[in-house]
Specification:
The chain is mainly beta and 336 residues long. Helices cover 2% and strands 70% of the residues.
Length: 336
C-alpha cells in the first residue's frame, strides 16, 4: 500500500512577493511476502518567490525525514532559482534543487519490471545544479542550452542475475536464473550534463525539433571495485512535425541512445555455501525510428496512430529484454 497525504499553502504579498509551504507524509507498507517492508517519509518544503520586472528569484529548502522502523535518516536539499529575462530571445537562469526518491517494491518494479520478486532498492537522495539559457526569435525559432551536475547518494542500478546450483564437484546441474531477472545494487554517482534543445518552424505548418544531451558519470568504487550502471553517455533526437490548424498533427523522427555497459551478477551455491562474482556486458548504440498521427474530430474526440521501431532495430532498454520490432498502436482519445 502507498498512502500519500499533503498540505499546500500559499500567500502573496503585493504583486512581487510570495511564500509557499508544502508538507507531505507518505506511508509505504508491504503485504504478503513483503509484509515486513514499511517506510514513512515526512517532507517539509518552504519557499519564497520574488517576481519583479525582468528578474525572477526563488529561495527555499526541502527537508525529508525517513523512518522505516529500524532506522531513521534525514536529508536536506537547498532550493534556489534565479532567472533574468534580458530580452525576449535571451533568458539565462541558474537552478539548484533536489529530491528524495523511495525505492520500495512498487517503485522499484516501475523503474525496472524485471527485478527479482520481492527485491527492493534503497531510497535515493538526488542533488541537482543547472545553468542555462532559453530564448527564441518570435515564433519561428526557440532554443535551450544548458549544463549541470547531479549528485546521487545510493543510486539504484540493475544487474542481470545468474543463479546456478552446483552438483558434485563443480558441475552445474541446474540454472535457476539465466540473466533474465535483475538484482539491484547501489552506488554514489556524480553525473554532469551538457545539452541543447532546438525548435524551428520551416513554414507555417511544418516544424523541426532537435535535442542532444551528453552525460558523464563518476561512479564511486567499493573496495576498489568499479560498477557499470547501464546508462548511456549520449542521447539525442530529431523530429519533423506538421500541424494543420490543431486538427491534424503528424510527427516523425528518430531517438538515439548511446552505447551502454551493464554489470552481470553470477551466484553459485551447492546448498551449504555460496559465492558470487561480477561480469560485464555491452549494448551498442541504438536508433528508434517512429511516426505518429493524430486527428481531432472535435474538441473532445480524436483518433491516433503511433508506430515505433520502424527500422526494426534490436533495441534493449533493459539488458537481455529486446523491445518489440516494428509495432503499431491505434486508439481513440476522449476529453471531458
Amino acid at each position: 500500500a502507498d498512502v500519500k497525504t499533503f498540505l499546500d499553502l500559499g500567500k502573496r504579498f503585493g504583486q512581487r512577493h510570495g511564500v509557499t509551504l508544502h508538507a507531505g507524509y507518505d506511508v509505504y507498507k508491504g503485504s504478503g511476502e513483503l509484509d515486513g517492508y514499511k517506510d514513512n517519509i515526512l517532507t517539509v518544503r518552504p519557499m519564497y518567490r520574488l517576481q519583479g520586472g525582468k528578474l525572477e528569484f526563488a529561495l527555499g529548502a526541502n527537508y525529508v525525514l525517513d523512518n522505516d522502523g529500524d532506522r531513521s535518516e534525514s536529508a536536506f536539499f537547498p532550493l534556489f532559482e534565479l532567472k533574468w529575462r534580458a530580452s525576449d530571445g535571451f533568458t539565462p537562469y541558474l537552478k539548484i534543487d533536489g529530491e528524495y526518491l523511495n525505492y520500495g517494491y512498487r517503485n522499484t518494479v516501475t523503474w525496472n519490471p524485471y527485478v527479482l520478486q520481492g527485491v527492493t532498492g534503497r531510497n535515493t537522495s538526488e542533488y541537482n545544479g543547472r545553468i542555462g539559457i532559453r530564448g527564441g526569435v518570435s515564433s519561428s525559432f526557440a532554443y535551450h542550452v544548458f549544463g549541470g551536475v547531479s549528485r546521487y547518494l545510493n543510486m539504484n542500478y540493475g544487474l542481470n542475475a545468474y543463479l546456478m546450483l552446483l552438483g558434485d564437484g563443480a558441475n552445474v546441474y541446474q540454472a535457476l536464473y539465466q540473466g533474465n531477472v535483475f538484482g539491484v545494487s547501489q552506488r554514489d554517482v556524480t553525473m554532469w550534463t551538457i545539452g541543447a534543445e532546438l525548435e524551428g518552424r520551416i513554414s507555417g505548418a511544418f516544424g523541426l525539433l532537435f535535442n542532444l544531451q551528453y552525460r558523464g558519470y563518476d561512479v564511486k568504487k567499493i573496495e576498489d571495485q568499479s560498477a557499470h550502471i547501464g546508462l548511456p553517455n549520449l542521447t539525442a533526437g530529431l523530429a519533423l512535425k506538421y500541424n494543420y490548424r490543431d486538427k491534424l498533427l503528424l510527427k516523425t523522427g528518430v531517438d538515439v541512445y548511446g552505447p551502454r555497459d551493464f554489470d552481470i551478477l553470477f551466484m553459485y551455491t551447492d546448498g551449504a555455501s555460496a559465492s558470487a562474482g561480477l561480469g560485464r556486458t555491452h549494448v551498442d548504440m541504438q536508433f528508434d525510428v517512429y511516426f505518429g498521427a493524430e486527428y481531432n474530430i472535435s474538441k473532445r474526440i480524436g483518433v491516433f496512430l503511433e508506430g515505433r521501431n520502424l527500422a526494426n532495430q534490436r533495441i534493449y532498454r533493459y539488458n537481455q529484454y529486446r523491445d518489440l520490432g516494428i509495432n503499431m498502436l491505434a486508439g481513440v482519445k476522449l476529453q471531458f
